[in-house]
């Protein structure tokens, strides 16, 4: 009898506890006091590209869009057309749209700081790709090591020319971290080994590369080599050198399809290969993690290699 009384009492207690667990405020194992992160399908990301008139950034942008699509993320891409003022306006438009995160490929590392700070004020996380921002809070930066890339170019060049040779450098957009770092890396290697007869900006642009190289050749007919801080300028320089019927070694940077073809043909000596597809993909992967409340590395490097014949 005692045994049956005990079993009845235990059953009654179980029923009461089960009923209590259904009342509001009684936590179950499936509930949490934390605010749940947004579902990936709800995410919206803005991507501000410095220019889509450059194959490197077209590839970067396309890969980011594809990766976003694969993950059900809405992405809005804007083209700053190499205009820092337009980029500031583009970022402001993305802020007004209420995107959850903004990825910026700066036109100018200094000028973009104001846009980054505007996003910060709106509590929108910012990622930079390829080029850094000189100000504001950036959660992650994804890029090749541009200093190392410049050094790679310098080291290879010194295997092709004699010390004391006349060398020129075509610089990218003034004030951009990519231009500063690639130039610094190159000079780290060649500064005391060659005669740098010209170092002029051509703004990462093929047409400007052609014009600037024409002027350099006229002023320095004995120049033996040129390092162009991107392939577009290298290809412009190649046009000028070919037209002048000069034999000048050219090394570029980015490994765009056109440049790699010229390397295989033997008209460009080499190009430093970045991986724009991987940069775009890593940017979206980092963005998704950030929006899910995860921690990502402040600097996410992408490997480089030298492409030569």
In short:
The chain has 309 residues and is α/β, with parallel strands linked by helices. The chain has helices spanning 2-21, 55-70, 84-97, 112-121, 146-157, 177-190, 206-219, 231-243, 257-265, 276-291; strands at residues 44-49, 74-79, 101-104, 126-129, 140-144, 166-171, 195-201, 225-228, 249-254, 270-273, 299-302, 305-308.
**How many helical elements?**
10
CATH topology of the largest domain: Rossmann fold
If strands are numbered along the chain, what order do they take across the biggest sheet? 2-1-3-4-5-11
What would you give as the CATH superfamily of the largest domain?
Response regulator
Give helix % range: 40-55%
Describe this structure in words.
This protein has 309 residues and is of the alpha/beta class. The protein folds into two domains: 42-143 and 277-301, Rossmann fold; 146-273, 3-Layer(aba) Sandwich (Rossmann fold), CATH 3.40.50.2300. The protein is built from ten helices and twelve strands. Helix 3 packs parallel to helix 4 (112-121), helix 5 (146-157) runs parallel beside helix 6 and helix 7 (206-219) crosses helix 8 (231-243). Residues 1-36 have low confidence and may be disordered.
Task: Describe how the helices and strands are arranged.
Layout: H1 2-21, E1 44-49, H2 55-70, E2 74-79, H3 84-97, E3 101-104, H4 112-121, E4 126-129, E5 140-144, H5 146-157, E6 166-171, H6 177-190, E7 195-201, H7 206-219, E8 225-228, H8 231-243, E9 249-254, H9 257-265, E10 270-273, H10 276-291, E11 299-302, E12 305-308
């Amino acid at each position: 009898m005692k045994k049956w009384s005990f079993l009845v009492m235990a059953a009654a207690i179980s029923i009461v506890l089960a009923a209590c667990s259904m009342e509001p405020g009684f936590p179950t194992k499936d509930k949490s006091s934390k605010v749940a992160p947004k579902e990936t399908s709800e995410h919206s990301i803005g991507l501000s590209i410095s220019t889509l008139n450059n194959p490197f950034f077209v590839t970067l942008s396309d890969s980011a869009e594809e990766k976003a699509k694969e993950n059900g993320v809405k992405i809005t891409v804007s083209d700053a057309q190499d205009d820092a003022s337009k980029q500031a306006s583009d970022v402001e438009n993305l802020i007004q749209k209420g995107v959850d995160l903004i990825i910026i490929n700066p036109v100018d590392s200094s000028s973009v700081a104001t846009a980054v700070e505007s996003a910060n004020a709106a509590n929108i996380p910012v990622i930079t790709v390829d080029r850094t921002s000189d100000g504001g809070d950036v959660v992650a930066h994804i890029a090749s090591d541009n200093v190392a890339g410049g050094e790679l170019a310098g080291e290879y060049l010194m295997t092709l020319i004699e010390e004391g040779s006349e060398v020129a450098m075509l610089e990218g957009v003034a004030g951009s971290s990519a231009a500063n770092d690639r130039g610094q890396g190159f000079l780290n290697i060649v500064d005391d080994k060659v005669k740098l007869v010209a170092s002029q900006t051509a703004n990462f642009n093929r047409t400007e590369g052609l014009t600037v190289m024409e002027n350099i050749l006229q002023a320095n007919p004995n120049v033996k080599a040129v390092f162009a801080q991107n392939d577009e300028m290298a290809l412009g320089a190649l046009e000028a050198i070919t037209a002048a019927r000069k034999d000048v070694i050219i090394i570029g940077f980015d490994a765009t399809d056109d440049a790699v073809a010229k390397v295989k043909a033997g008209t460009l000596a080499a190009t430093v290969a970045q991986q724009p597809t991987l940069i775009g993909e890593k940017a979206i992967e980092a963005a998704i993690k950030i929006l899910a409340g995860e921690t990502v590395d402040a600097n996410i490097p992408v490997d480089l290699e030298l492409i030569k014949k």
